[in-house]
Write a structure and sequence with these properties.
With 277 residues, this protein is an all-alpha fold. It has a domain of 82 residues: DNA Binding (I), subunit A. It has 10 helices and no strands. Helix 1 packs across helix 4 and helix 3 packs across helix 5. The radius of gyration is 31 Å and the shape is elongated. The C terminus is likely disordered.
Length: 277
């Protein structure tokens, strides 16, 4: 189980009630949750509002949900990543009967979800199905970008430095805890102050930015050389990868010669001259 899923779980403010513990219909349960919850029993499905059913979470996430509150209480200073690692360690030591019980709950609710989802899909129009397909593709693309960003960070890819203006803003950045409106107002004021500054005062920030970008380019070149020398050449910017030229197809002239015969006739057809007898 990836740690980022657990981190998302620990960010949920409270344990989500399963449908068996709640009298709320599917629409209400889905509205109150943030992604992790169980589906309602099949016998109550007709009473629920028709909408896309939520897929039940697997055995591991169920276990994480059950210990999340106690784990956070016992480790108040732990980060979300630390809590995720602690959960993973506890799962490894969990007895097999408990794991089997959680797995059985998941399979039972999954069977219910499969029926609900089939009914939901059968009620969609072709346009809605296409929209659902595009949404799924977009989510997959977003996930691929997040995974790539995480991989690049783990491999130590140099981070591009900020420009002179952002260096100036970093000295007067808004204090944490301000509202979004206050943040925009402060950033707008910084932009106006930067535009009114004489070039001599901007020079220091711009010079620092130029020096940083020079160091970044050197570090980037070293990092890409390292990636090309390993099995991670696909992570290098294509313009910097020294790719071998594509091989020239052999026998090209021979095939071209077969297509045309002397006199302009095509291959396989005798040249004709004048009218037929």
């Amino acid at each position: 189980m990836q740690l980022n899923s657990l981190i998302k779980l620990f960010n949920v403010p409270r344990l989500l009630l399963s449908s068996r513990q709640s009298n709320l219909p599917l629409a209400t349960v889905g509205a109150q949750s943030n992604g992790f919850h169980s589906t309602i029993p099949l016998e109550n499905a007709k009473a629920a509002t028709v909408q896309k059913p939520k897929r039940p979470v697997n055995a591991y996430i169920r276990f994480a949900q059950s210990i999340r509150a106690d784990l956070a209480k016992a480790n108040p200073s732990a980060s979300q990543m630390d809590l995720a690692k602690l959960t993973s360690a506890k799962w490894q030591t969990l007895d097999q009967p408990s794991k089997a019980r959680l797995e059985e709950e998941y399979k039972r609710e999954l069977a219910v979800w499969l029926q609900q989802n089939a009914k939901y899909l059968s009620q969609l129009t072709e346009a809605q199905k296409e929209e659902l397909k595009q949404d799924k593709l977009q989510k997959a693309d977003d996930k691929a970008k997040r995974d790539l960003k995480r991989t690049l960070k783990q491999l130590g890819r140099p981070k591009r430095p900020i420009n002179g203006f952002l260096r100036f803003c970093a000295q007067f950045k808004p204090k944490p805890g301000v509202t979004q409106t206050e943040h925009k107002q402060q950033m707008k004021a910084l932009g106006e102050k930067w535009r009114s500054m004489p070039g001599s005062e901007k020079e220091r920030f711009n010079r620092e930015a130029e020096e940083a970008i020079t160091r970044y380019q050197e570090e980037m070149k070293q990092w890409e050389d390292k990636m090309l020398a390993s099995d991670n050449g696909d992570l290098v910017r294509r313009k910097n990868a020294l790719l071998n030229p594509a091989p020239v197809p052999t026998g090209g002239k021979a095939r071209s010669a077969k297509k045309e015969q002397p006199g302009g006739a095509k291959s396989g057809r005798p040249a004709t001259g004048g009218a037929r007898a």
